[in-house]
Specification:
The protein is of the alpha/beta class. The chain has two domains: 3-245, 3-Layer(aba) Sandwich (Rossmann fold), CATH 3.40.50.150; 255-482, Vaccinia Virus protein VP39 (Rossmann fold, 3-Layer(aba) Sandwich), CATH 3.40.50.150. Helices cover 37% and strands 22% of the residues. It has helices at 3-12, 17-32, 50-58, 70-73, 115-125, 145-149, 158-167, 183-195, 212-232, 255-258, 272-275, 279-287, 294-316, 335-340, 356-365, 401-411, 439-444, 450-459, and strands at residues 39-44, 61-67, 82-86, 99-105, 126-137, 171-178, 239-245, 324-329, 346-353, 370-373, 386-392, 412-423, 462-470, 475-482. Strands 3-2-1-4-5-7-6 form a seven-stranded mixed sheet, with helices on both faces. A seven-stranded mixed sheet has the order 10-9-8-11-12-14-13, with helices on both faces. Helix 2 (17-32) packs across helix 3 (50-58). It is elongated.
């Protein structure tokens, strides 16, 4: 930011309502991570270091920070327990897996920052399973003189931020807007500045002195707003707060698990790291009653109707000329596996899921099922094991759906088929992005367009062949073939 803005920031950040409210969002997000005592936390682009000081006061952590600007470094006072240096977020001077958590506030869109490269660097220095708390400004059309004064070049949307996080290896826990109550006023002022007045030759930030009672009132409004948005999220706002995680290490890639033989009913335990991937969606489903409840029974009835048509479609795309093994990856109670096992050309129907209770229910319904407890991100099967690998409405719940699709590609035979079905963006679930941070929104999972689904398949080295919209267009699916098949 401009040199004059650092002095202004130092003067305002302790008492100005906006900085206090933004700092509270960040600190609360870190507190919800429940880090162990002494955890190493990095503030990437720490500026004057006020966020780190607040974190060390309220959390038992070891704090690290850096900033590229000499004006920022000049404000550091050498607080005990806070270690800082000058560095660029594009090239971090720390070893791999050095930190339990990283925070970064209003840095990703700054001048000179390569957003994807910096996200990759932040992921590199996080330990497996470590958390990233990222705050960025929202909506490029709000870019104004304030942004120019603080050297902010890019403002983001939640969709763009999630996509960049996934592309750099993060799994996104939440991505929510902040300050929705203030958004209409902020948008009105910014639009008036951009279109209703002449552009000033010297950009200045929006920081202005406020009467004490006005500042205190705005702070209390922002505090009450945070309590509400922390529970239900916000569909819009001037700021985006994202919490994402580096992927966990898993032991499921050992050779003895990879070359598991197929035995009906065999259900070896999944590693604990794998089980954690299913926690958010599972907790949300328990909120609606859990297994055996009336919502579960209604959903099971609907699931049978969905899978009957899906199975007929999949049977039409089985490799011809031989009987094949088929795998339902992320099967739940394996309704489709039971139906597909009865189709001509299916030699063995195998299902894999991380939820052992769901597979036991599947075995109770159909004792002939070959069931395996396993992680969709690391399927416990040998390469080229199946003629058809399919998934319906599971990969969207994973932190990195593309990883699961790559695993499906790996265990599929060269001339086999891979099918992935996901909630359809332009179907009845179009509203999911509005409620994505509620329990219902988490349970539904992200929605996809056909183009987005095809793009994910191609990134997994699969060539889309044909599509299916099913269950009254709640879901869209793609059948694909490995690109290395001639």
């Amino acid at each position: 930011m401009e040199s004059a803005e650092y002095a202004k920031l130092r003067e305002y950040e302790d008492w100005y309502w906006w900085y206090r409210a933004q700092r509270e969002h960040v600190v609360r997000a870190v507190e919800r991570l429940r880090l162990p005592p002494g955890a190493r936390v990095l503030d990437a682009g720490c500026g004057t270091g006020r966020n780190l000081i607040e974190l060390t006061r309220r959390c038992s952590i070891t704090a690290y920070g850096f900033d590229v600007a000499p004006e920022a470094a000049a404000t550091w006072n050498g607080e005990v327990g806070v270690y800082r240096c000058r560095a660029s977020v594009n090239d971090l001077p720390y070893a791999d897996s050095s930190f339990d958590a990283v925070i970064s506030v209003d840095v990703l869109g700054c001048r000179g920052v390569d957003a994807r490269r910096s996200l990759g660097e932040l992921r590199r220095v996080l330990r497996p399973g470590g958390a990233l708390v990222l705050v960025v400004p929202a909506y490029q059309w709000l870019h104004s003189a304030h942004d120019r004064a603080v050297h902010s070049v890019v403002r983001f949307t939640r969709w763009r931020l999630r996509r960049m996080a996934h592309e750099t290896g993060f799994g996104v826990d939440t991505a929510s807007h902040c300050f929705p109550l203030f958004f209409p006023a902020i948008a009105g002022v910014r639009l008036f500045q951009n279109f209703g007045t002449k552009r000033a030759s010297v950009a200045r930030s929006d920081l202005r002195p406020l009467p004490t009672w006005v500042n205190r009132t705005l702070w209390w409004i922002a505090r009450a707003e945070r309590l509400v948005t922390a529970r239900v999220g916000a569909p819009f706002g001037s700021t985006i707060l994202m919490v994402a995680r580096a992927p966990e290490l898993t032991v499921a890639k050992t050779a003895d698990v990879r070359h598991m033989t197929f035995h009906a009913g065999r259900m070896p335990a999944a590693p604990e790291a794998a089980r954690m991937a299913a926690v958010p969606a599972t907790r949300s489903w328990e909120f609606f009653g859990g297994a055996g409840s009336m919502p579960d029974r209604v959903y099971d009835w609907l699931r049978r109707g969905v899978n009957a048509r899906l199975v007929r479609f999949l049977a039409q795309h089985l490799p011809t000329g031989r009987s094949v093994r088929v795998l339902e990856a992320g099967s739940g109670t394996a309704v489709a596996s039971s139906l597909l096992a009865r189709q001509p050309g299916v030699r063995m129907s195998v299902c894999v899921d991380i939820d052992e209770a769901a597979l036991r229910e599947a075995r109770r319904r159909d004792p002939t099922i070959s069931a395996v407890v396993g992680d969709l991100n690391c399927l416990p099967f040998a390469d080229d094991a199946f003629g058809l690998v399919y998934n319906s409405s599971t990969v969207e719940h994973l932190p990195l759906p593309e990883w699961a699709v790559r695993e499906m590609h790996r265990v599929c035979q060269p001339d086999g088929r891979v099918f992935v079905g996901v909630p359809y963006r332009f179907g009845p679930l179009w509203f999911q992005p509005i409620i994505r941070n509620t329990r219902l929104g988490v349970w539904l999972g992200p929605v996809f367009s056909r183009t987005e689904l095809d793009r994910m398949m191609r990134r997994a080295a699969l060539r889309p062949m044909t599509h299916l919209r099913y269950f009254w267009s709640f879901f869209v699916g793609t059948v694909a073939q490995r690109t290395d098949h001639s």
